[in-house]
Amino acid sequence: MPVDPDGRFFSGGQPIKVDGGIAVRAQRGDIGSQWWSRRFVDILERICPPGRLARGRAYARKGQVIDFTLTPGRVSGRVQGSRTDPYEVALAIDAFDETQWTALTAALADQALYRAALLAGNMPHEIMEIFDGAGLPLFPSHVDMTCSCPDWSVPCKHTSAVLYVLAEAFDDDPFLVLAWRGRSRDELLDALRATPEPAEVIDPLAVDETTLADRLADYYSPGISLSRLRERPARVTAPPELLLRALDAPKIKVRHIPLVDLLRPAYRDLGTDESG
């Protein structure tokens, strides 16, 4: 009987072909296309040896997984190996209890965008913030894996195959992620519908839109009554000879006196002439 690198015995024959098995759609590259299924696969690939997962991906692509069932905290599946009888696989995580789900549902319902997305059948990426904020991560960082095959290493190729099939099932139905944690789609959506909608958040910068036709009568109305307007003197009075200061002085002299010096008194007299 073949021996793995850890010195453990396992069946190394070719797997028996399965008619009607569950084969993942992704025959090359990554398995899982939605953000939630990719998140699950990323966690698996961090906590599991790459070689074990590679053999499991091959099994998942061949359709060696016969079936699987998902219940709160547990996934059970059957995988056809090289022996006549299929192997029994179990994947277990911690499911949240009723008190925890009540708090999570209230937090989800309090966010209008998350609530609307879930009721529409979508899984917003920000939902993870709600779970993390409650100290209840949506995706497990540890999965207890068991298999009836003689390979004692974890994960074996049979459990890996079920994990990848599960990831692609998450692609098709994101609510399976929540169901594994203990709340089915119908239970969660019924609870969200029964929760009062959150109060509308008022934007302090929002401006009411009004059509021009509705404002023709007062569009040019002044902010205060015309009778209250009074002529006010300018706060800063410019000197009458300001123009002479601003312009370059001409190089002209009259009897050896610069022209600017002769014009300055005249400009001052003009400034004091009220008849102006």
Q: How do the strands line up in the largest sheet?
A: 1-2-3-4
Largest sheet: 4 strands, antiparallel
Q: What's the overall geometry?
A: elongated
Q: What is the distance, rounded to the nearest whole angstrom, between the alpha carbons of the first and last residues?
A: 119 Å
Strand tally is 6
Number of domains: 2
Helix content: 25-40%
Round the mean pLDDT to the nearest integer and report it. Answer: 82
**Structural class of the secondary structure composition?**
alpha+beta
Helices and strands, in order, run as: HHEEEHHHEHHHHEEH
Tell me the number of helical segments per DSSP (H or I, 4 or more residues long): 10
| Rg over CA atoms | 39 Å
Per DSSP, what share of the residues sits in E-state strands of 2 or more residues? 5-15%
Low-pLDDT stretches: 1-11
Textual characterization of the structure:
This protein has 276 residues and is α+β, with helices and mostly antiparallel strands. It has two domains: 35-194, no CATH class; 243-276, no CATH class. It contains ten helices and six strands; from the N terminus they run H-H-E-E-E-H-H-H-E-H-H-H-H-E-E-H. The chain has helices spanning 35-47, 50-62, 98-109, 112-119, 127-133, 157-172, 175-180, 185-194, 242-246, 259-272; strands spanning 65-71, 74-79, 87-92, 144-147, 253-254, 257-258. Strands 1-2-3-4 form a four-stranded antiparallel β-sheet. Strands 5-6 form a two-stranded antiparallel ribbon. Strand 1 and strand 2 form a beta hairpin. Helix 1 (35-47) runs antiparallel to helix 6 (157-172) and helix 2 crosses helix 6 (157-172). The radius of gyration is 39 Å and the shape is elongated. The termini are far apart.
